[in-house]
Amino acid sequence: MPSIRPFLTAAALAALAGCTALTGQKPPPRPGTSVVALPPTKSDVWQQIAEAPDIDRLKRLPMAWSAGLADARPRFAAALREEGDLLRPDAGLARPAPTPGSYNCRLVRLGKTDARSPAFVKFKPFFCYVEVEDDLLTVVKQTGTERPAGRLWEDDVPTRLVFLGSLALGEREQPKAYGADPKRDLAGVFERIAPMRFRLVMPWPKSGAKLDIYELTPVAEQPKG
């Protein structure tokens, strides 16, 4: 004789569902089940701060590398080779955090968004400073009329930090907090590409290039203090 237990179980479940529909209350969870809230990832933290356009720029970083190099190769192939790992997209190494202190910096601009702009430009060296502020590393360009400054955030990709900052214009203007002026906001990726050699890569910047790439190497004689 077939067992009637399956039929009773189905009837009980149907009755429970009917009660739920009438009362609007959810049935208690089945024994042995629980809902676990996952802790936020490192990327979750900086993405809660970053503006949507900047998150999109960082997602399209591989495209910026590909398009920028393609723009520059026909005319600047020798210059690209001279830069070595600075312009190699996959050059990022483990432990990307820089040591606080003074750095020699220079800017290389790669790719173009209009026909009149050059696809490769190198600028004169300048100075940057890395310091610790509120338990976060900050990078500040110290000289020049265009001075990016911002904080470095940990990321789920172990070979990079995420830079969120702003652009100060003029030698006396102080950098604004990220998010205070969307026209000045900056976003990029900070990487170590060799022992004591770093780069800050900003995809799709407002400069008209496809990539702004800052090279940072420590100053030999660090200020005492």
How would you sum up this structure, described in words?
The protein is α+β, with helices and mostly antiparallel strands. It has one domain. 26% of the residues lie in helices and 31% in strands. It contains four helices and nine strands; from the N terminus they run ααααβββββββββ. The protein has an eight-stranded antiparallel beta barrel with strand order 1-3-4-5-6-7-8-9. A hairpin with a 2-residue loop joins strand 3 (126-133) and strand 4. The longest helix is centred in the first third of the chain and has 23 residues, at 61-83. The radius of gyration is 26 Å and the shape is globular. The termini are far apart. Mean pLDDT is 86; it is low at 1-23. Keywords: Signal. This is DUF4893 domain-containing protein. Residues 1-17 form the signal peptide. It comes from Sphingomonas astaxanthinifaciens DSM 22298.
What sequence of helices (H) and strands (E) makes up the elements? HHHHEEEEEEEEE
> Can you count the beta strands?
9
- Spatial arrangement of strands, main beta sheet: 1-3-4-5-6-7-8-9
Structural class by helix and strand composition: alpha+beta
Helix content: 25-40%
Oligomer: single chain
Largest sheet: 8 strands, antiparallel, barrel
Poorly predicted segments: 1-23
Molecular shape = globular
User: How many domains make up the 3D coordinates?
Assistant: 1
* Cα distance spanning the termini: 91 Å
